[in-house]
Amino acid sequence: MSESRLQKYHSQSQAKSNSPKKKHSGWHWLVGSIVVIIVAIIGVFGYYGLSAPSISQEVLQSGGSSTIFDQNGHQITTLGNENRTYVTIDHVPKTVQAAIVSIEDRHFYQEHLGINPFRIFLAAVNNILSGPDNVQGGSTLTQQLIKLSVFSTKKSDQTIKRKIQEVWLAAKVERTFSKDQILEFYLNKVYLANGTYGFQTAAHYYYGKNLTQLTLPQIALLAGMPQAPVNYDPYRHPQAAKNRRDTVIKAMLNNNKISAAQAQTALNTPVDQGLKAYRPNSGVGENKLIVDSYIKEVIHEVKKKGYDPYRDNLKITVNMDIAAQKRLYQIVNNNELNFPDDKLQTAVTVVNPQNGRVIAMIGGRKVGQVQLGLNRAIQTSRSNGSTMKPLLDYAPAVEYESWATNHPVVDSPYTYPGTKIALENWDHTFQGKMTMRTALAQSRNVPAVRTLSEVGFNKAVDFVNNLGITIPANAGLSAGIGANVSTLQLASAYAALANGGTYYQPEYLAQIETADGITHSYSTSGKRAMSPATAYIITDILKDVVKPGGLGSQAYIAHLYQAGKTGTTNYSDQELAQNPALKGLAKDSLFAGYTQNYAIGVWTGYDSPLQNGLDMTQQKLAGQIYQLLMRSLSASKSNRDWKKPHNVVRVKGTDVLYLRNHQPNNLPAPRSNNKNTWSQNNINEDQDQTSPSSGDNRDEESNSNQDTEDNDNQQSQQNEQNNTTTNNNKNDSQNSGGNTDNNSTPNQPSINNNPANNNNPNASPPAGNHSGPSATVP
Fold first, then answer.
1. Is 361 exposed, middle or buried (0-12, 13-18, 19+ CB in 10 A)?
2. pLDDT in tens, 171-188
């Protein structure tokens, strides 16, 4: 019994001793965990904070615009207004200050740490409850200043690390500068759309006034824009701008900065009262017009990558060569070429075949002071004419059917399958049986379409799709002599011929450096679009085009290894019926050419083609633009001929090339001065000489052991002999005197208006869309 009581006593004592220990141990664990978490947070905060970008008064006072550099590090332009007017806080009306603070951060003067934890908490709760479509920011005005000064607006850059650094720097700014200074930095740095930075600059741009002269509704409109400058642009989105302006006015009323009567008067004021006429403003400095088309595409690309080039204070390096860009601008805007008037337009794109980088681009000429205007270089509303033939017709024939350059084709009367539409050649003649080389070099329409039909429309469309060109499924066989293609697409596709068969998607951007010093580099990966053999064989034929006497002789440059193709489109009978004066004129003229260093696509024509067309002389302008530009670009570059792939065989003494193991049955006898007769030894399987010759590239034969490249056209041979002494000057094209794009077909339909039978991809356009035979000038 006593033992039982003793055990009970010990049990109770043990329970009492254990209970407080458990409770004490639990509290220790909780407190310890909290301490560890706090220490960890402080550690992370300190680590990220100490690694934050440096901040200074100079950085805070600088503009938020981005600076753009070319591939060689030369500054091209700065986005925005070149005369940003900095205004000190003592010259900023109290109404302007009140408007900014009321809408952006009404507790600004009570926040001494640069952050507002309560506001951040409320914003977080709202974002959780409202979802991604109604996101609110919890940033103070000081935090916004930090974002504008050292961080980008790219969503992927808005990380925990960046948020911590933002808070760290905001606290530092609050310790270093007064509230008036912080507000001054902000209102001078903020972006207000249309290339304007700062409230004083915006007051001049939008209203032609100083800040002190603005009315309350005008002040409210500007104060509401920083949250989303493009969305609240009064020119593009007047209703959204008015709604935002009214929100600012109501915020000022709620913040006791204006009276109810003032608010009502302001709310009743039209949003466009006092607003000046819209003026585009894409860049600054002497280059702004020279580079405008290119920079327009750069702005688009930068935005696609998540940055705001007008707000993020970026250093953007582009692939432009500013010297090449200036030369291009000079060629099309000065008096080196005989443009008939200022209305004749042009578009030109230059790419590097080895990597797809866009070296230069121009989207128009004689455009005055217009900025961010129409960029014709990327427009796909006009046909590329016969520049399509190497890409859609003959390259697939070599790639898929292993055609040799002497593969026989027929140039005879032809009607599109399933229709009564006859296809004509540019000279309204038919020359019968000829080789593929002759048909392409002389730009015969009928053999081109027959070739496309034989290869297969769908296979050919897939082929050019790998070159960045999209052909509609209902385009039909007429696409073989032209489809809607931009000069950017044209140059990039021909670049694949230049580099041996690899297509690179064109790239404007090389590098973006954000304000916090982080660098992002950009490049494009090439993909195999055709075999090196196909590229080489097509290039070898296109060399004939730019020889003296060739159809593209206006692009001839002495001693330069190059290849190219002309293209011209004509008016349909319907169009001629609307304006008979267009008879004998062309609608569009193009030239695509390349070396191993550059590929260039050129278009010329009128924006209103039913009012004006191109005569025979003006049709040469595209090739002449190419010639002047390519000569300038090539002056400081190596001049290399293309190296023949091992699986391409050249028949000695002829211009015949074929793929190894695909020897044609119709090999010609060699054309030479010796008495040797044809034998298997006449097939030369050695690589072509690749070093530049001391003469021009029209003749690759420097000794009896080298192959010759005779032209199938005997007249071209004679013209070439007559021009061997042509000097390397700007009159090359005038001296050559050969056949060019100087023919028009007055009764032919426009190629880019040729929809095809939807039920048959190889069918020609429906007869209802044509009133005459289809033809394309070469």
1. buried
2. 888 889 999 999 998 999
Q: Is the Cβ–Cβ distance between 542 and 419 less than 8 Å?
A: no
Residue with tokens 């404007």: 508
Portion of the chain with pLDDT greater than 90, in percent? 59
Among 150, 154, 122, 114, CA closest to 138: 122
Sequence-distant (6+) residues with CB within 8 A of 204 are 85, 210
Q: Judge contact between 305 and 514, C-beta under 8 A.
A: no
Token pair in block for residue 726: 């042509």
Under DSSP, the state recorded for 333 is H
Are 542 and 390 a contacting pair, CB within 8 Å? Answer: yes
Catalytic residue among 104, 174, 709, 720: 104
Whether 774 is a known active-site residue: answer no
Looking from the CA of 45 toward its CB, the CA atoms found within 13 Å total: 10
State the average pLDDT over residues 449-453: 98
Tell me the HSE value of 292 on the side-chain side, using a 13 A CA sphere.
25
pTM score: 0.71
Q: Is the four-CA dihedral 622, 628, 629, 633 of positive or negative sign? A: positive
**pLDDT tens digits, one per residue of 705-723:** 333 333 333 333 333 333 3
Q: Which amino acid belongs to residue 361?
A: M
483 near 475, Cβ under 8 Å?
yes
> In this predicted model, what pLDDT tens digit does every residue of 421-431 receive, in sequence order?
999 998 999 99
Count of CB atoms situated within 10 Å of the CB of 374: 16
Using a 10 angstrom Cβ sphere, with 0-12 exposed, 13-18 middle and 19 or more buried, the burial of residue 250 is middle
- pLDDT higher than threshold 60 for residue 616: yes
**Residue 3, pLDDT score:** 53
Q: How many residues does the chain have?
A: 778
Q: Residue 117: what pLDDT?
A: 67
Contact predicate 381/289, CB 8 Å? no
Give residues with Cβ within 8 angstroms of 211, minimum separation 6. Answer: 87, 91, 92, 93, 96, 199, 200, 203
Range list of H helices, 358-433: 395-401
In the numeric block, which tokens belong to residue 721? 């002999």
Question: Distance (Å, rounded) from C-alpha 86 to C-alpha 346?
Answer: 40
- What confidence tier does 628 reach under pLDDT thresholds 50, 70, 90? very high
Burial of 316 (0-12, 13-18, 19+ CB in 10 A): buried
User: DSSP assignment of 103-157, as one string?
Assistant: HH-TTGGG-SSS--HHHHHHHHHHHHHH-GGG------HHHHHHHHHH----GGG
User: What are 226's two structure tokens?
Assistant: 């920083």
Catalytic one of 282, 386, 478, 572? 386
Helix H segments across 546-681?
573-578, 621-634
Residue type present at position 314: L
Candidates 568, 493, 486; CA nearest to 739 is 568
> What one-character DSSP code corresponds to residue 538?
H
Report how far residue 251's alpha carbon sits from residue 245's, in angstroms, rounded to the nearest whole number: 10
Pair of tokens at residue 376: 């014709």
Weakest mean pLDDT among 25-29, 141-145, 409-413, 553-557: 25-29
Pairing relation of β-strands 315-318 and 67-69?
parallel
How many CB atoms sit inside 10 A of residue 693's CB? 17
Specify the pLDDT at position 294. 96
Question: For this structure, is 733 an active site residue?
Answer: no
Contact present, 207 and 214 (Cβ < 8 Å): yes
